[in-house]
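The instructor's notes for this session suggest beginning with a concrete chain rather than abstract definitions. Hand out the sequence below and ask the class to guess, before any prediction is shown, which regions might be ordered.
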Amino acid sequence: MNLEKYQGETMWRNKIITALLTASICGIGVGQSAQGRAASAKAGDCDRACLNHFVDQYLAAVVAHDPSQLPHSANMKFTENNVELKLGDGLWATADAIGTYKIYIDDPTDGQVGGYGVVEEDGHPGILGMRMKIVNHKVTELETLVARRDSANSTFPNPEGLKDKPVFSEDVPADQRLSREKLIALADGYFSTIQLNTGKLFTEFDPNCARVENGVQTAGNPNGMGVAKQGCEEQLKSGLLRFVTRARDRRFPVVDQQKGLVLVSTFFDHAGVLRDFKLVDGTDHKVGLPFDRPFSFVMLELFKIQEGKIRQIEAVINTVPYHMPSPWVAATK
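After discussion, reveal the predicted structure:
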C-alpha cells in the first residue's frame, strides 16, 4: 500500500486505516485453574459443524434483530468495536442483510469459533469480523468488529473487494499439521516483526504470501501501487512500519489446526513521536499524517499457515483512541 497516496484524503479515519500495512503483538495466557479446565472440557463437545452452525445462527439472529434466536448464557459478554454493549444493541439493531462472503475458523478443542463476512446496514455494506466462545452449547462470549464506511462516497473499507480465497478452507494433511503452540508462535512472530519494525523477521513467510485489510489487498497485489506489490516478507524487511510503537494485548483465541488457521485479536499503538527515519536500504522516510499523532488500531487478524510459513493474511481493522484498553484483557496497574 502506498502510504503517501492516502495522506491527501479528506476523511481522517479512512486515511488512518487505508494507510495501514498490517497488524499486531503481546502475550499468551498460560495456566488454567481447575474451573477453567472444566469449562474447556464442556466447550470441547461442539464439533466443527456445531461451531459453524453457531456462526450461522448468530448472523440470522442479527438480521432478525432478535438475540433470543442465538442460544446464549444469561451472563454472556458482548462487545462491538472494542466496547462492551448490551446484547441487542449496536449492529443487532441496524443489520439488514448478510452477504455471501464468509470465512469460518473452528477450534473444537477450546470451543471457540471465528468468522468473517459482509453485513449491510440501511443498504450500506460493511465488513464483519467476529469470535464466539461456546460452553454447554450456549454462547458465553461474543466479540465483534464492524468496519464501516464514513460516507456514501467512501471506497474504504471495501467490502466489494472481498473475494473467496479457497486457501482458507483447505485442510492441512493430517501428517503436516502443526501444534497449537507452533501456529500461535508463527502468528505472534508476525506482530513482533511489525512492532518498531527494524527489518528483522521473527516469523516465516511463504513466497506467495498476500494480505487483505478491510477488503483492500495491501501485500502481494500484482495490480497494486507502490509497496502493495511487494510480498509480506519484502514489505516487513524494508522497516517501513517502524512507526508502530506497540503491537499490544495480543490474544490468540481461535486456533484451527485442521486448516492451519489462527485468529488474533490485537492493537497497534502509534505514539506519533517518530517523524523521520531511514528504511533498511538507507532511504529517508518521512512519517506524515496520520502517523505523526497518537492513535490506535484494534483488529481481528486471520493467518493461514502452510508448511510452517504464513501463506495468507486477512484483517478487519478499526481506529480507536490511543492506547484504548481491551474489555477482554484484565487491566494491569
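Then share the key points. Residues 48-63 form the longest helix (16 residues). Residues 39 and 268 are 31 Å apart (CA to CA).
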